[in-house]
Amino acid sequence: MKEMKLVRNEYFHSPIWKEQAQMDLPFLPTPEDTIKAIFETLNLRSPLYGKKLVDLGAGDGRVVFFAASFYEMYATAVEINEEMLQTMQISRDNLDNHHNFDNRHNNGEEVPSDLKERIEIIEADLFSFDVSKYDVVYAYPFPKCMKAFRHIWEQIKPGGCLVSIRWQIDFLNEVIPDNNMIKIEENLPSWIYFKE
Ligand SMILES: C[S@@+](CC[C@H](N)C(=O)[O-])C[C@H]1O[C@@H](n2cnc3c(N)ncnc32)[C@H](O)[C@@H]1O
Questions:
Q1: For residue 165, how far is its CA from the centre of ligand 1 (angstroms)?
Q2: pLDDT number for residue 14
Q3: Is residue 45 in a domain?
Q4: What CATH number has the domain bearing residue 135?
Q5: Which among 50, 105, 108, 128 counts the fewest CB atoms within 10 Å?
Q6: What's the 106 CA to ligand 1 centre distance in angstroms?
Q7: CA of 26 to the centre of ligand 1 (A)
Q8: In testing the pocket of ligand 1, which one of 27, 63, 190 has its CB within 8 Å of the most ligand atoms?
Q9: Per-residue confidence at 20, pLDDT binned at 50, 70, 90?
Q10: How far, CA to CA in Å, does 74 sit from each of 17, 52, 69?
Q11: Above 90 in pLDDT, residue 5?
Q12: pTM of the entire structure?
């Protein structure tokens, strides 16, 4: 039993697995106007200020930096590609904190004025990452990864939401009432699924 666990862990951290994962889900960035439209829609439904976002497979970090800079969110990037992780780290180190807004308050919690403190970069596998504490779970998945979204959806807390770029999450289309699902058509189509 012990041995099996070890083999499994080694496999998940092996270069072969990383390569396969990135073949199944390669880097493709969300276009800027799509990102803007999604955040505007989310913020209208419920203000994003001080909330937590995770981008599952964050690429160059554009979504995470956007969320933290323009909506004052706490934003977490989960990624396995080493170059992408390095790019994000460098971008984070070079951030100009003058982008900051005033320190306002959210449910008694103060949002740090330091933009860098609100951005977290984590090397991890998106499919086994715990998303239960996040308000917004963002993903640009490929059809091959869809199965994993059942487990991700189960973890999302009530009041949270899942954003899916380009691909609909098939099983959610069948179970979610229309008023909890928004389709955005700005450059790339995207779907937002709200959990009650
Ligand atoms: C389609 S891109 C999306 C990039 C970014 N979220 C955006 O929308 O601009 C998917 C990213 O997921 C990363 N990725 C692929 N498999 C992964 C895994 N198992 N765990 C974490 N990241 C993964 C890839 O390296 C790639 O950067």
A1: 12
A2: 73
A3: yes
A4: 3.40.50.150
A5: 108
A6: 30
A7: 6
A8: 27
A9: confident
A10: 30, 5, 10
A11: no
A12: 0.89
